[in-house]
Structures are given as structure tokens and as C-alpha cells.
Amino acid sequence: MKKLILASSSPRRVELLKKAGFDFEVCPSGIHEVINPTLSPQENATQISKDKARHGAQKKEGVILAADTFVVCRGKIFEKPKDKNEAFHMIQFFSGVSQDVITGFTILDTQSQKEISQTVLTRLRFRKLNTKEIKNYIDNNDVTDKSGGYAIQEIKDPFIEKVQGSFTNVIGLPIEEVIQALKACGIEPFDKKK
Fold this sequence. Notes:
The chain has helices at 11-19, 41-59, 84-94, 131-139, 167-171, 175-184; strands at 4-6, 25-26, 63-73, 76-78, 98-109, 115-126, 160-164. By secondary structure, the protein is α/β, with parallel strands linked by helices. The chain starts with a strand and ends in a 10-residue tail after the last helix.
């Protein structure tokens, strides 16, 4: 039986895969993510996920799942903020405008060398936020481990007016698309009823 390896330490990706019924091992790729300015945001997300999967394949045998997520707003790419101050400026920048959340994921079977890569884009719009709301969110959440400085599932007072596309993509992994790609590599979720 093939073993699924998640090449990420993201607690959100771990939770999404568990909820989908997969049994897997966590083994972060450990690579330094570098945005290539000559590539589009989608190409960057795909390339970084490929790099992570290939690096993961050097550490473990099995079916490696790697992903990279970032936010694109007004032509700028936003990754994880360095600190709360940077997170504040990111969220302020998103206030009242639409943004794209892009996740590139790659699945690599180390035995067959089969590789599947896909990019999923979700468009969302923040309502107009005031300084107090942004500060309150940042003060009460860990914002430095999330692309764009926020987690959609943590926002109690909804910042978001509209979501077009995969909601789980905004969390960090477009689970429906990932399930289909894993099935193509012979990995099925466990039947929870057994």
C-alpha cells in the first residue's frame, strides 16, 4: 500500500487532510521559498510546490503532497508576514478590495515518478475595515504563519464580503482538487464508517 507524505508542517493542511479521511505522515520539505519575479503568481505557486515535493522525495518514499499558498492583491504577491506590524499593513492593504488566494500543489509518486501539479485560484473581497478591527484581529491571533497575515476560518467578525471558488483553498489546500489528484496516484481516503 502506498504511503502518503505531507511535505508541510502547516496545521491547517494537516487538519484538512485528516478531515478528508486520509492517513499520512508529516515530513516538511524544509526548503526556502523564493518568488521568481519572471514568473506569474500561478507559475510561482506551482514551481515552489514542485520544488517542495521533489525535495520531500529525497527524504521519504511514497506519494509526496506539497503545496504553496499566497495572496495576490493589486498586482503584489503576499506571503507570510515577518511580524505583526507587517501583518497589519497587509490586512489594511486588502481592506475594501478584491484579492486572489493562489495555491499550487504537487503530488509526486516516488515509485512511478508520476507527478501531478495544479494551481487553484479563489477570489475574495474584504469589506472596508477600520484600524481598530485590524488591530484587534492581529492582537488576538497568530498572524505570522499565514499567507496574507490572516486565516479565513479564524475571523469571527466577518472581514470577507464575498468568496468565489474553493473555500478550503483560502485555508491552505484546495481539498476537492487534491482528493482527485491523490486518487489518480492510487491514494484513497479511508472509509470512516469501517
